[in-house]
Amino acid sequence: MSNKLILVLIDGLAWHVAQHAMGYLHALCEARQASVKPIQAALPTISRPLYECVLTGATPVESGILHNQVVRFSNQESIFHLARQANFSTAAAAYSWISELYNCAPYQATRDRYTNDESLAIQHGIFYHDDAYPDSHLYLDADYLAQRYQPDFLFVHPMNVDDAGHRGGGDSAVYRNTARLNDMHLSSHIPSWLAQGYQIIVTADHGMNNDYSHGGNLAHEREVPLFLIGERFNHEQLMSCPIQQTQIRDLCALVLGIPTPNSDILSVLLK
Description:
This protein is an alpha/beta fold. The protein has one domain: Alkaline Phosphatase, subunit A. It contains 13 helices and 8 strands. The protein has helices at about 15-20, 25-30, 45-55, 60-65, 80-85, 95-100, 110, 135-150, 160-170, 175-195, 220, 250-255, 265; strands spanning about 5-10, 35-40, 90-95, 115, 125-130, 155, 200-205, 225-230. It has an 8-stranded mixed beta sheet, sandwiched between helices. The longest helix has 23 residues, at about 175-195. The termini are close together.
């Protein structure tokens, strides 16, 4: 079985919407090809701090990235760095803040939007800087990277669900329907990713409240989904495994075959 991994971070997807809007992903769960559970996001429930949390395992308080206006290079060891140290290749189709955290800050679109540099933590990248950049285009960017470079680790980061929540709130038709559309996009891409030998993790950084925002401690802001998709995952064990958002980096490392301090705890999730 392959060690290659795709991590999809659906920005702003709350668990209470993922429970009913992600029909394709839940169909995979019913077919026992995937598993899902809610996990709790770290605080504050703000995007850039939680990108860092998911990709490095450090809480915002630990990383010092406490809000979106902290524009600097990460001082933590990300999954991209762990992969490169193990001689695995990396790629990302993601928001520009990911480039700022792990490749170069501040982001300069003419320099950084298209990245192809073997010396960087994210070797191959297509980055965007408009929150309304269509998820349909973003997933095609990810497909291009997967087919062109066959990276061992690919990070995929669509933004439209979060953008819809900021326009309509977490209990709005536009928010729910954008989540449903994202699920449809995934149904068009996941089969080919699986055929290419990838295991897939789908999660979110934070949820969305009814005030068109996030950042606090409400359940709709903190509870996010964690889907595991692929033949290497032990799907029967996910619900009983006490995995936290801070352990997603180490779960990614485990799939890639990289040992971490949490390997023993998380090993029950792999066959």
